[in-house]
Amino acid sequence: MVDRLQRATGKMPKNVPELLKGTLDLLILKTLESEPLHGYAIARSIEAATEQALQIEEGSLYPALYRMTNRGLLRFVWGLSAGNRRIKSYRLTAKGRKRLELETANWGHFAQAVARVLGEHPA
Amino acid sequence: MVDRLQRATGKMPKNVPELLKGTLDLLILKTLESEPLHGYAIARSIEAATEQALQIEEGSLYPALYRMTNRGLLRFVWGLSAGNRRIKSYRLTAKGRKRLELETANWGHFAQAVARVLGEHPA
DNA sequence: TCATATACTTAGATGTTCTATGCATAGGGG
DNA sequence: CCCCTATGCATAGAACATCTAAGTATATGA
Fold it and tell me: What's the mean pLDDT when you consider all of chain A?
């Protein structure tokens, strides 16, 4: 699916699998908005926030963290967890913060569009 | 992204790219709920319903219609459009109708979960 | 000591979507 | 009468995120 979020936002590249792809990224960005966390903690945080409705697979999570780091959305430092283990503590970069805003807006538009098709009152 | 919709529904296979994949499928199923339509018309209908917010690419649409037909969710008959062209008129099968119900529920759960992470009041 | 939870890594497969083309025709404007 | 555009469908190939599955390592509690 795709480019479903068209240029409604004007700035959408031209291709928005960003929606699919974008959702995990969005959840990660949002989770890191208020405080730095390591991968494992991010997954648990999202699962807790959704009361286990969303399950974050490690095989999806870690690659996503690499991608986002490579794209300059995140930065990490090695550290120690409460349990005394080596962790990569991730935080948002300025770029990541802007991306969070953009993707949050995109999600809103997309969800609203789907809602319209589904016949829910258009808000 | 993925299996984001976990087994919240209990019946989710185990893998729910159904979400990404599922969204286009869901939109198509919903569009065909009330009346049979041909591919081109489905795309236009969705675009109209979302005021062009969602763009349905033909390269995504037709393969999706094949997939769904092969899976027994849709059935089609050749016909003629108002413009007098050859069209494949698609309609939902009983299985497609059930799938529509399921995916509509899944979407609701997923959207709500994302909303929770985004900090919108949990409803 | 062993099982489990924590924590991260990565290779390979799967699947949807996109880009780009191609074909074909109806109808309107010039 | 010709051409251009909108209508309709089809499909190959690429791109990409995600999943499955496996591996490494260690802290902690039973």
Answer: 82
Closest of A106, A123, A119, A104 to residue A29, by C-alpha:
A104
Work out if A85's Cβ lies within 7 angstroms of strand C: yes
Q: Measure the CA–CA gap between A15 and A4, rounded to whole angstroms.
A: 8
CB atoms within 10 A of CB A26: 23
pLDDT in tens, A65-77: 999 999 999 999 9
Q: Is the pTM of this model over 0.70?
A: yes
Instruction: Give the neighbor-by-neighbor strand order of the sheet with B74-80.
Output: B37-38, B86-92, B74-80
Nucleotides on strand C lying under 7 Å from protein C-beta: 6-12, 15-22, 25-27
Nearest to B31 by CA among B15, B12, B50, B11: B50
Give the total residue count for chain B: 123
Asked if A102 contacts A11 with a C-beta cutoff of 8 angstroms, the reply is: yes
